[in-house]
Design brief:
CATH architecture of the largest domain: Roll
Number of strands: 13
Largest sheet: 7 strands, mixed
Structural class: alpha+beta
Shape: elongated
Number of helices: 11
Length: 300
Amino acid sequence: MAFYWVNLGDTYSFVKSNSFLWAPTHGIYKKGGTFTKRFWDVVKDVKKGDIIFCCGDGPEIVYVAIANTDAYSCQKPFNKCFSKWENDGTRVDIDLTVLSPSIEKSEYADDFTDRFNSQCSDKIITEKGNRNQIYMASIPPAAGSILLNLIGDEALVIQAAIDNALNRQASKGSDTLTLQKARKGQGAFRSNVLKLWEQKCPLTGINNPKLLIASHIVPWPLSNPTEKVDKFNGFPLSPNADKLFDKGLISFDDKGEILINYKLIDQMTINALGLSCQMKIQLKKENKPYLKRHRELFDF
């Protein structure tokens, strides 16, 4: 599963009504000769099951689209909003979820500017802090995960669309209510994680369950239905540790020793949050595959 960003502009109403994305393969200069754009070519890379975050005519993310097909060649749609483009193009059929509320620019811009902009196929945010005027860009999985975490209960609708696109069946015990509670670190997932760790944060030692958050190791949006409810894909963390771990600012190696991303967080802040570089977790062996994926996701 890959992640993409698309600026729909004038086509956002058309996309909502018709459930597909389209981009030209090339343009023609007024004096003759063809040209192409990298952000048109990116559309050709989209595969069935990929996730596409959609901005409308403003900076807010208004839709989340799941690709129902691989990208394929298709002639220009018969609609005036495509009139200035040439006939040859690329289409992706999608399953669209309308976000209510939309994800505001203030919720995503800082992460993209500081962490992910340079990893996108085209920058999402310009040097002046505005949304870049591109069509589609690939974005890293960590960015996609953080964006999906900003979504409310629509996350369950999106997960169902992904499973449907990939012909993937939910595992036993992964009914809608169970998944909804697991997404919030509640229900059976929380109970099983706390029991596994004897009602105590394995990093800070805090043993008041009311203060502990059942945090997924591989983020909920990137876990399959079985992994979403697996107790070994979770730690019962104190709030400070949970926030840092969830955003990929800390992780752990296979010995359980803490890893800190000092490019994004300084030692003074780490100390103020009650953490240190000497901390470690006594891992269960079943945690290690999940932690490997967490480190890869957040570039540790």
